[in-house]
Design brief:
365 residues, 7-stranded mixed sheet, 39% helix
Length: 365
C-alpha cells in the first residue's frame, strides 16, 4: 500500500461458561514490518507498535511468553508466516484462543476485488507475492481455536470483511467466534509520527492499559478502540468474519489475577444492563453502554432503539431515533418479503449499523 499504513485485527476470542476463568491457553501471533526488501515504502512505527501491544498483553493479561510468536521485518516472509501458522494450528486445541496482530502495508487490488497484507518479501505491483485476505480467512477457518481475534493495522484492512456473515447465536459467551478489528475501512490509514504510535495502535494501547477495566470482551474492545481512534482519515471497524466456525461467541481479554464474568447468556447481560434504567442509575450506565455496543455488532437494532429511547425523549435526537426505527422497519419488511437480494440486504444492514453507531456516539449518557 502507498503512504501511511497500519494494522488490522481478526479476533478469535474465548469465554468459558462454567468456571471463573477460561480453561484454554491464549496464543499470540504478531507480524509487523517497517522495512521491506523491495521498493515498498518504509513505515515508521509498525514494529514498535506491535512490540508495545505484545508487552501489554504479556504483562497485564492472561498471555504467557511461551505461547507468543513474533515475525518482525526480515523474519516476516510469506513462507515464514505460513510455516508459523501451520505450527500454531498443530498446537492449538478447541479450548484455546488465538490473537493475530498484523502491522504493515496493505493494498486493495480492484481488478481482483481482493485486499492483501504486504509481508517483508512482497514485491511492488506483484499481487502473487502478497498475502491475500482469502488465504488469511482460509487459515482462520482451518484453525481449531475456540476464539480467534485479529487486530489489523494496515491500509485497506477493512477489505477483510468482504462477504462477512451475521452472528448466528445470541449466546455470545458460550460459542466460538471469529472477529477482526481493523484500523480502517477500505481506505488508506495513518502510520503516525516517527517514534510514536499509529492512531490505531495508540487507541488500542490506551484501551488495554485502562486501570478501571478488569477485562474486555473482544467486541467491546473493538468498539472502544473505534471511539478513540476514529477521525477524518480513518474509522476502525470491529465485525465478524464469514467463517463456519463463527457461532456468535466473543473472546475474553482477562487481566491477570482478575475473575472472569459468568453470565449465562446475553439476555442476562441485557436484563442486568437495563435494571435501574428508569432512575438513570450511574452504576449501571457503563454496563448499559457495553450491552448496547455488543447488540450493535449483533444487528439487534430494535433492542438498541428501545434502550436508547429514555435518553433521547424530549430532545432533538428523538426525531433521529424515530427515523432510525423507520429505516429498520423498512429493512425488516424487505427481508421478510424477499424483495431484496442478499447483497442489497447486507448493504442496508451495514448502513443501519453505521447510522446507529454514529447516533450512539452522539448521545450523552
Amino acid at each position: 500500500m502507498e503512504g501511511e499504513v497500519k494494522k488490522d485485527v481478526i479476533s478469535i476470542d474465548q469465554d468459558d461458561k462454567k468456571t471463573t476463568a477460561p480453561n484454554g491457553k491464549n496464543y499470540l501471533f504478531i507480524i509487523a514490518v517497517d522495512d521491506y526488501q523491495g521498493d515498498i515504502p518504509t513505515l515508521n512505527n509498525a514494529v514498535s507498535d506491535a512490540k508495545s501491544v505484545k508487552n501489554i498483553l504479556l504483562e497485564n493479561y492472561n498471555f504467557l511468553p511461551e505461547n507468543c510468536y513474533t515475525l518482525f521485518n526480515s523474519e516476516a516472509t510469506k513462507r515464514a508466516f505460513a510455516k508459523q501458522f501451520k505450527s500454531l494450528n498443530e498446537q492449538i486445541s478447541d479450548e484455546d484462543n488465538l490473537v493475530i496482530y498484523f502491522s504493515g502495508h496493505g493494498v486493495l487490488e480492484e481488478s481482483l476485488d481482493q485486499g492483501f497484507w504486504l509481508l517483508y518479501d512482497a514485491e511492488k505491483g506483484d499481487e502473487f507475492s502478497y498475502l491475500s485476505n482469502d488465504i488469511i480467512n482460509r487459515l482462520v477457518q482451518q484453525c481449531d481455536a475456540r476464539h480467534i481475534y485479529c487486530m489489523i493495522d494496515s491500509c485497506f484492512s477493512g477489505t477483510i470483511f468482504r462477504d462477512i456473515n451475521d452472528l448466528e447465536s445470541s449466546q455470545v459467551y458460550h460459542y466460538s467466534s471469529r472477529y477482526a478489528l481493523t484500523s480502517g475501512m477500505e481506505t488508506t490509514v495513518l502510520d503516525g509520527i516517527p517514534g510514536k504510535n499509529s492512531p490505531f495502535a495508540e487507541a488500542l494501547i490506551q484501551s488495554l492499559k485502562d486501570p478501571s477495566k478488569d477485562y474486555y470482551w473482544g467486541v467491546e474492545l473493538g468498539l472502544q478502540v473505534r471511539s478513540k481512534a476514529a477521525n477524518d482519515q480513518q474509522t476502525p471497524r470491529i465485525d465478524s468474519l464469514k467463517n463456519q466456525k463463527h457461532l456468535g461467541g466473543d473472546m475474553l481479554f482477562l487481566k491477570k489475577g482478575k475473575i472472569a464474568p459468568q453470565p449465562s447468556n446475553t439476555d442476562s447481560l441485557y436484563s442486568s444492563t437495563t435494571k435501574g434504567l428508569d432512575n438513570n442509575s450511574l452504576n449501571n450506565k457503563e454496563d448499559l453502554i457495553k450491552g448496547i455496543k455488543t447488540l450493535l455488532v449483533q444487528n439487534e437494532f430494535k433492542k438498541i432503539a428501545d434502550l436508547l429511547e429514555p435518553f433521547v425523549e424530549n430532545t432533538n435526537k428523538s426525531d433521529t431515533l424515530f427515523l432510525l426505527r423507520a429505516q429498520h422497519a423498512d429493512y425488516e419488511n424487505s427481508e421478510i418479503s424477499g424483495t431484496s437480494s442478499q447483497e442489497r440486504l447486507e448493504l442496508r444492514r451495514n448502513q443501519l449499523r453505521a447510522r446507529f453507531s454514529s447516533f450512539i456516539d452522539s448521545i450523552d449518557f
